[in-house]
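4.2 Preliminary Data

To establish feasibility before requesting continued support, the project team ran the inverse folding procedure on a target of 184 residues. The structure was first converted into the token representation described in Section 3, and no sequence information of any kind was made available to the design step. The complete token record follows.
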């Protein structure tokens, strides 16, 4: 088995509750997803100054804490590559197959279509998310993990933006978090 990148040690702790029968390819998929994300997000930083890939690792860690499957974990690691980097959905499909590509596509906002208003664009993005969830429920699990990590790092936003984000996301995500027992 290949050595896991040190950046993924947090995922090893999460995996303690996973089945001991997982095969070698499981960590290979996770490692490939991490490397793909690291290369795609090279040079990008969050407002905190951290490399963007750290956000992807944190999202994957939340998914790991929930004990979800390897494909969902891989999706957490690459959830933003199509939206925020030059990588395409075709690149994701070629590297990881249709299951991962379907989830990542469901997480990607509609960006190439011109809308009359921001509200119209937001409605279409939510519609796409809902249709994607119907196809594969892992879409919403990754989306919620992404939102949860973003909420945990609001201190790096300007105060007004953080307050607006807290209100908007808290209002829309609280029922989901409560139903699934996410208290942090």
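Position-by-position output of the design step:
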């Amino acid at each position: 088995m290949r050595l896991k990148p040190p950046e993924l040690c947090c995922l090893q702790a999460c995996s303690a509750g996973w089945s001991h029968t997982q095969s070698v390819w499981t960590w290979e998929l996770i490692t490939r997803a991490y490397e793909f994300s690291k290369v795609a997000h090279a040079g990008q930083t969050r407002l905190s100054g951290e490399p963007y890939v750290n956000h992807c690792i944190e999202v994957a860690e939340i998914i790991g804490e929930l004990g979800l499957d390897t494909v969902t974990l891989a999706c957490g690691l690459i959830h933003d590559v199509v939206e925020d980097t030059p990588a395409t959905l075709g690149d994701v499909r070629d590297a990881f197959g249709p299951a991962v590509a379907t989830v990542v596509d469901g997480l990607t906002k509609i960006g190439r279509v011109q809308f009359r208003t921001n509200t119209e664009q937001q409605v279409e993005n939510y519609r796409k998310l809902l249709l994607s969830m119907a196809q594969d429920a892992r879409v919403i699990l990754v989306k919620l993990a992404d939102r949860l990590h973003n909420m945990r790092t609001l201190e790096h936003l300007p105060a007004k933006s953080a307050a607006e984000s807290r209100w908007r996301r808290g209002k829309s995500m609280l029922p989901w978090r409560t139903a699934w027992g996410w208290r942090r």
